[in-house]
Amino acid sequence: MKNIKADIILITGIAGFIGFHQALRMKKVGYKVVGIDNLNDYYDPQLKLARLRELGITVVEEEGFTTNSDQSIIFYKGDIQDAALLEQIYQTHPFQGIIHLAAQAGVRYSVENPHAYVDTNIKGFLNILELARAHTMEHVVYASSSSVYGMQAAQPFSENDPCNHPVSLYAATKKANEMMAECYHHLYKIPLTGLRFFTVYGPWGRPDMAPMLFAQAIIEGRPIKVFNHGKQKRDFTYIDDICEGVAQVYESERLRGQHDILNIGNGAPVNLLDFIETLEHALGKAVEKVFCDAQPGDVEETYANTNNLDKYISFKTKVKISDGIHHFTNWFKSY
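The line above is the sequence of NAD-dependent epimerase/dehydratase family protein; the predicted structure tokens follow.
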């Protein structure tokens, strides 16, 4: 990587699972990180506050910002729907680029609360694009999702495949983000890269995702629901591998000046029942499985083709599923 000691970067969703880890990764190589998060209650905000404490942010103000001890990470409690606040953050800490990870997450919740997805994922993303248009950004890297592929049959998923049949509103908003970014690059030449994440897992993960749900049930001796009768595969990708890939994408000179959409995943789907078995082994307890029909919005398999990503960066995942689950369960038991 180039010498970026003086660079300032904005990370949205910094108290989220990926945003928290990405902030640690960017700080490690010398960036000054400015983060924003609204700390909403989609899941327990105490986990988000605990992540912030790991970043050295011990006080959350209603207005203004707080910082860690060496001022390498600055935190604003606020919403990306607030365009005036985003502009204020830029004027106070003129960042050169953006890693946009803030979103209303979750496939199943989009059935219950669709307005939250449009407000954050569409309106909020528009504010990020407008911010990038108003100020010269070296690069804007934004989170898309493997869910945009929907129920298509072709495996592995390639960025060249059509994605015109989303099966959840969450997926539809992520596809909309890609189209919005394409438009803004065409009109204003903003350098943008969208990353389609594939089933990210690891320590400090979201409690609504399978690893946390299953681990909690195993520890407490409760049965777990296995949807689609276990006939699911996911391209589980460990968080450290994801953050390294995001950092390399952000730094890639070849990606700056264009708009690309790239898969970022492990490229090795794991059967859900095998994943549960590995989790049981790591926690030293078996769990009762209740097999259920598939839920609305779920896809049967995700599988990343990362050939296009390989053209730009030397992205190779390093963490095997057994090691990743070991790291996750060690954190889970201590937390």
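Note on the example: The radius of gyration is 19 Å. The CA atoms of residues 215 and 259 lie 39 Å apart.
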